[in-house]
Amino acid sequence: MPELAVASRLYAVLAVSGPVVLTAFGIGGGDLPWFCSSESPYLPEGPYALGSVPAEALFLGVLLLPVVVAGLVSYGSRRAVLSAALVTGAVLVLGLLVSGPDPCTGQIRTASPWPLLVCYPLAVGALLLAARHPLPTRRYGFAPWAAVLPAAWGALCDRPVSAFDERSFTVFFDVAPGSSGDVPQWLCAALQWFTQADRIGLPVTLVALAAIAHATGLSRWIGATVAAVLLLFPVLDVFLLDELLLVRSHLPLAALLVVWTARPARLEVGPGSLARMRTVAVTAVVVLCAVWLVVSSYVPSR
């Protein structure tokens, strides 16, 4: 498998994931329609569920574009790669055309969505380069794409309603750790960051990265690392939240599907495969116990 063909496809997926990754780390969110353009001490920064259909379509496009591009370039054909470039360009054009009121102030935005303007042209360039280096068509199964729905659940269902949505009541909520006075501040900050990253859609980009890594034959450790990061979200919930209903139970399902994708292509039932499965299970238990010991040492009993 040519290195340039693999590198260009991987770079394209990383580039289309750029807007989600940047906003997850607090960069460029104020220039996108579903975030507040300025900080407010009374309202959450976002992302918001908007009443505008074009703005919601843009949010879904930015959220799901990494998975769409990963799925198209995984087929290896030149036509599929060019289709990925066309879809990326369409989302970019939609981002330039969509304008609406700020969800926190109600004022019309004037700033350009620079995260899209920076990342998507780079992705199109990488896709055009990848189109010149086709790869053999392979079958990848259903698991990597089935992981998209649980990974995107927080972004689809956990966004606060816009303050200026006249068709519904204004509802704001945030996840806060129980007994917050006894929990170290860095753990509270970590929980808030993971909550915000889940709403923005960072787990979707992780699933896309695992899918393209599997499709291009890169190390299976990438899939295992992605699954471990996805498990960090609910692990923090379990140890820091009083209400079990607030635990992000959809992400362990996404992690399980990612691990299933990263398994060897041929899984034969026999003593060898059973031994490997037993090793994986024991390793998972050890890792979870280690995480529990580290976190519980900082969180006092309630």
TrEMBL record:
Transmembrane helix keyword on record: yes
Keyword Transmembrane belongs to the record: yes
Domain of life: Bacteria
TM ranges: 12-35, 55-73, 80-100, 112-131, 221-241, 277-299
UniProt keyword annotations, A-Z: Membrane, Transmembrane, Transmembrane helix
Protein name: DUF2029 domain-containing protein
Organism: Streptosporangium jomthongense
